[in-house]
Amino acid sequence: MSMNTQGRPTTPGAATGSLGSGPAALLPAEPLLFEIGDRDHSGVDLPDIEVPEDRLGGLRRKSELDLPGLTEPEAMRHYVRLSRRNYSIDSGMYPLGSCTMKHNPRLNEKMARLPGFADIHPLQPVSTVSGALGVMAELSHWLMELTNTAAVALSPKAGAHGELCGMMAIKAAHAAKGQGHRKIVLVPESAHGTNPATAAFLGYSVKSIDANDNGTVDVEAVKAALSGDVAAIMLTNPNTCGLFESQIIEIAAAVHEAGAYFYCDGANFNAIMGVVRPGDLGIDAMHINLHKTFSTPHGGGGPGAGPVVLSEALAPFAPVPFLRKDGEGIDLVEHVEGSAFGRLTAFHGQMGMYVRALTYMLSHGADGLAQAARDAVLNANYLKARLEDLFSAPFNGQPVMHEALFDDEFLKGTGVSTLDFAKAMIDEGFHPMTMYFPLVVHGAMLIEPTESESLQTLDAFVMTMRELAEDARSGNAERFTSAPTRAPLRRLDETRAARQPRLKWIAPDDALEAAQ
């Protein structure tokens, strides 16, 4: 390879823009790559090539690719500067309720990057991946052990995908019994939005079940909604108000007596893992978010994994591929058997997620997993106890599970909304909690500290939240309605950004910029 002979522009500021000097340069306005680089140079030399023929059926590009040329230092610094403007779990607490953003142990990452796991390909011969199959079988064993269920499908890629898997198994089970007429699915009003969406996607009619005054589902309301046309109930436990469904065993019995199945949304399994086995409560199917409960990374669209555990009644309807242990080892079943609904996805799933989750399980052990769940519950109740005299809790007077729920009643008459309050948290160095969810509570503020946070971190969070609440109630609305003022960017028009997104970069109009 020849040495680079093109050179780079040396005019001061030509490559990096005006970053300034002194303290302001510590957090500069970072332009886009298109604005940093130019189209006349490149950081590497590529040889000129001749393309003898057009093999793209006339679709070959006719114009220049129009990509900016940058050196390696320019590209590296650009992304490092962007990373310093981003909030992450490695830089601070993420109090998002129903998202479980907790610390991801680096041991998990080290194991997932072992060549035998990181470098395998889904199409290579099964005989060459016996170690990976062993990891998957071990993970499957412990998922079934933790939930007291008979089978598990590892292939779903996330929670909603797992819901689809479980409900397809339920649909197949009804069809096998000649009960395809069951077209109704019961969904509590506090459910995750994916629950009714999944049911509707599969052709079911959704019937909502109202929450009682305690924020949970009443067994009598379920019984009143049951009929011979009901296929299943989709119930989250612990639910999205951060509460344990105290009548879940009675609900399961009523559902089964009516000939329906019990799908449990296991998004909040991290609150009860190692302490309560959902199978003992009567569930027939439940997805488990490995990227929440067992500390594998998530966010930004993935990667994720949402295995589904199945009861004995639904085990025959698990999708392929699945693992089967026999006397000679582990068999990867690729062909549909019996009345199973078929294949959910092309390949088995996210290998890296399996490795991380199993590493988390084995490094904690049974007692450690139970302790993590108890610590998550303890931290949430600690926050609730420290804040409920200033904040308004819609279901006060009862302990919570992994998250504490507040509403906006304490802000009434202040001119400050839940959104304003959350924006002010950014100025104080904390990521906002989940806002306006669950929908059963007006102006909801859902806070989940997880088990990762220390007492010192929780106390710092509490002090900030209390100071903000007191300032809002004292009449200082301007602090909140103008926030954030100390973030890299001020308050954005998020509604307009969602409805009118700019999906393509367009060079700015120099004349317009000069006029501004």
From TrEMBL:
Amino acid composition bias (Low complexity), ranges on this chain: 9-22
Keyword list (alphabetical) reads:
Oxidoreductase, Pyridoxal phosphate
Q: Name one GO molecular function term.
A: glycine dehydrogenase (decarboxylating) activity
Q: Which residues form the Glycine dehydrogenase C-terminal domain?
A: 373-475
Query: Which Gene3D superfamilies is this protein grouped with?
Result: 6.20.440.10, Aspartate Aminotransferase, domain 1, Type I PLP-dependent aspartate aminotransferase-like (Major domain)
Region named Disordered: 1-22, 473-494
SUPFAM superfamilies listed in its UniProt record: PLP-dependent transferases
- Top-level class of the enzyme under EC nomenclature: oxidoreductase
Q: Which reaction does it catalyse?
A: N(6)-[(R)-lipoyl]-L-lysyl-[glycine-cleavage complex H protein] + glycine + H(+) = N(6)-[(R)-S(8)-aminomethyldihydrolipoyl]-L-lysyl-[glycine-cleavage complex H protein] + CO2
**Where does the source fall among the domains of life?**
Bacteria
Q: Which Pfam families match?
A: Aminotran_5 (PF00266), GcvP2_C (PF21478)
Which ranges carry the Aminotransferase class V domain? 178-299
Q: What is its EC number?
A: 1.4.4.2
Function of the molecule: The glycine cleavage system catalyzes the degradation of glycine. The P protein binds the alpha-amino group of glycine through its pyridoxal phosphate cofactor; CO(2) is released and the remaining methylamine moiety is then transferred to the lipoamide cofactor of the H protein.
Per its UniProt record, what PANTHER family does this chain match?
GLYCINE DEHYDROGENASE (DECARBOXYLATING), MITOCHONDRIAL, GLYCINE DEHYDROGENASE, DECARBOXYLATING
List the protein's name. Answer: glycine dehydrogenase (aminomethyl-transferring)
Source species of the chain: Pelagibacterium flavum
User: Which gene name does the record give?
Assistant: gcvPB
